Amino acid sequence: KLSKRLETVASFVPTGAVVADIGSDHAYLPCYLIHHNIATKAIAGEVVKGPYESAVRQVKLEGLEEKITVRLADGLKAIDPSDHVNTITIAGMGGPLIVSILENDLNRLKNVTRLILQPNIHAKVIREWAMQNGWAILDEVILEEDEKIYEVLVLQRGDMTLSEEQILLGQHLLNERSEVFVKKWIREIENWRRVLTSIEQAEVTQEIAAKREELQHLIALVEGA
Ligand code: SAM
């Protein structure tokens, strides 16, 4: 059974999609998408040998070799125009790593119409990247599983302008204000306050002063939202 986290990612894959799952590890997500007749074809990309081998093994075990191709490659280098991939999923990494994977091979996104991204931390950098690169947020989900909070961002081509607040919190998530969302940001504010208290004891260098100002700004931003 797939985790709630990956099931949420899967729920945004359009029926009939050709999917590339980048950083696929065991290829659980592509296997699920094929078994449930959501994707017609999938590529599982992995840059590390061990996880790549797990993916190959899993695909074989499930008898899906005809529909899932596993490739050992860095990021989007796992896909080629002849694959006709139209949907990309990248899950279980930090936002900055996800952005660097996209940024490193922008030309390989030409035929792609949907990105489903699940950053473990720093979703903010994905929203910033999307805004600057002609992608708009179609939907966002925040969920909790095993005491961890995850965000899933669904992007399609389009223009959007987000405020600083919306970049940090996510406009859909902010509108919805779910219990998990509130919990996440209460926790963040607590962390920021803890850091503030600890640097109050420190000698005031320019760096400390800047950090203090940044934290106070973030707290005010989130509390005011
Ligand atoms: N996507 C799966 C999930 O969400 O459960 C696996 C997440 S796992 C924490 C991250 C995987 O991404 C690792 O297997 C790692 O080897 C792979 N990875 C990291 N950077 C990558 C890159 N540039 N290209 C392809 N895979 C990458």
Automatic annotation (TrEMBL):
It comes from the Bacteria. It holds the Pfam family TrmK. InterPro entries: SAM-dependent_MTases_sf (IPR029063), TrmK (IPR006901). The keyword DNA repair does not apply. Signal peptide: none annotated. GO terms for biological process: methylation. Keywords: Methyltransferase, Transferase. The keyword 4Fe-4S does not apply. One of its GO terms (molecular function) is tRNA (adenine(22)-N1)-methyltransferase activity. PANTHER family: TRNA (ADENINE(22)-N(1))-METHYLTRANSFERASE. This is tRNA (Adenine-N(1))-methyltransferase.
